[in-house]
């Protein structure tokens, strides 16, 4: 292929742009699409920046407030609780992923594992959850529609008006025509991605790995290339504009709207998961058997009591060198946490299995493939949410147990047992505020670049196979049409 | 100046089947350089299929289509570069002006022409200058045809393939067009046209091949200084028409 060959390709691409610029529909679609992308990138970037700052500040405030609590009974601090916030990853300004659905903060307290809160979509109405115009949504769903609207007639228009025959009769090959039209559509892809590149630079400046940001954009470029190729294939196959438009519109509905829903439904049906209410009842039933950690006289702790008395060779709990109530609280918390963790792990395993089933649909829909790739790469996938839940649970367990240890070691059993008798006794059953520095500073970090890249292998393969298959198809069509 | 030595176009026992229908059967003819050859026939006679086979859009079932000494299907790009094709309805872009259309197709053919050369070509085909910079969506068929001819002239191709070139043109435009063809042929260009216009063909062609049901049923030649006998051709043409 020499310079003259490529100059033909550029000439065809340039003429396609001239056609778009002189067509009201094409220019309207292009303008609306680009404005939408640009505004979404700006709005989401500002929003994410504000969220990151707010969550970091709230995290600091929560830790500060906890440490600033006055002298108290340690178990009151267990119930005072603490908040943990998940700061958004740098690339979440392009793809918020599950962040909007799963919640981004959690209240940590004794004896309970709370769900994450403040999910934008959970708080919004059904209508607003549909209207989430993140840059990822725009590129995954709306950009193919935009490409389709301006590109559906790329080849069929030339066939319908017989200009294709005229071009070919001039000695230009059909493959050159396809390349020229493809180049024009790819330049639109470049325009769509341009505002996103700005966010990519910001993400790198915020510490995101260059390899990740690059692969994020390459992934999206491959995804939009798939649509360009699909548009060219279907526009080449049909000789009427109406036929190519209908088929492309149907393909878009199938690949971008229907297939993701089928993926979710299939995932839910193949990996059935117990509902929240059902799980809550099952957890409660198990927890009842563990005994009440607030009541050291509960028969469930008789064995613990006997072993402690034997260990310290004393006859009564009053003689123990440690506060039996604190020991019971700690033991109860450990048992309870073990039950809660088992249910939580089961739920997360189910969610992950469902996600894997859903991600498998990327072989059938490039939109599902890019959605998985994007969330994994941007550190906004379900795995990150699970890690957040596990890390916050560790944080919760550690500080609750640290308080229980204080309860056992810094407060005598007598003082503790008498704390309800009078105000004076209540004051005696307090622990100095100096001891509240039991909290570990919580700073949530996303998965490393390597983990994300290896996790995104399947989605990458799905995208590459789609692109490769369509390239082969284009080459065959290019050779068959003379 | 007509050279008429070299064979510019040749159909050698050409047969073409489309969807199992025999469209062209064992067709053989030769067109010499500088000659105007009209392939005459009624609807469905196989004229356009023959022309499209010469352009490489159809592959012969048997036989050969040869242009400028090359078998078309084997040397498609080289053959197409030698030819200027004028379709029945000039397929140009309505969103472009006449000049932009010409420039676009020339650049695809890797030919550079200055604005003044393009203007000369437009003048040559009598396309009024007020239309040169107008988008073609409101052009008449005659104006589109003239633009396409101007493009063909600018390509300086030695061979012209014309598909029903005067169909839809008014009588004045037909006369102008026929005159232009004669001028082109006088410069040594080979012109192969398919038409059902007996009178037009007799007026300009050096030779006429009569095609009926895909077979060449007769050839008529002009003699030095005189046109082909229209009545003779018309009678032969009418024989094949349904009563």
Describe the fold and architecture.
With 482 residues, chain A is an all-alpha fold. Helices cover 72% and strands 2% of the residues of chain A. Chain A is built from 21 helices and 2 strands. Chain A has a two-stranded antiparallel ribbon with strand order 1-2. In chain A, α10 (174-205) packs antiparallel against α21 (457-480). Chain A starts with a helix and ends with a helix. In chain A, 41% of the residues are buried. By secondary structure, chain B is of the alpha/beta class. Chain B has a domain at 7-87 and 158-239: Rossmann fold. In chain B, the strands form 2 sheets. In chain B, strands 6-7-8-3-9-10 form a 6-stranded mixed beta sheet, sandwiched between helices. Chain B has a 4-stranded antiparallel beta sheet with strand order 2-1-4-5, covered by helices on one side. At the A-B interface, α1 and α9 of A face α2 and α3 of B.
Can I get a quick summary?
The complex is a heterodimer of chains A (482) and B (243). Chain A has 482 residues and is mainly α.
In CATH, the homologous superfamily of the domain at 7-87 and 158-239 in chain B goes by the name P-loop containing nucleotide triphosphate hydrolases
CATH architecture of the domain at 7-87 and 158-239 in chain B: 3-Layer(aba) Sandwich
Summarize the biggest pleated sheet of chain B: 6 strands, mixed
Count up the helices of chain B.
Answer: 8
**SSE class of chain B:** alpha/beta
Helix proportion of chain B: 25-40%
Q: CATH top level of the domain at 7-87 and 158-239 in chain B? A: Alpha Beta
Task: Please trace the helix and strand order of chain B, writing H or E for each element.
Answer: EEEHEEHEHHHEHEHEEH
- Uncertain spans of chain B, ≥5 residues at pLDDT below 50? none
Features:
heterodimer, A: 482 residues, mainly alpha, two-stranded antiparallel sheet, 2% strand, B: 243 residues, alpha/beta, Rossmann fold, 6-stranded mixed β-sheet, 4-stranded antiparallel β-sheet, 10 strands, 35% helix
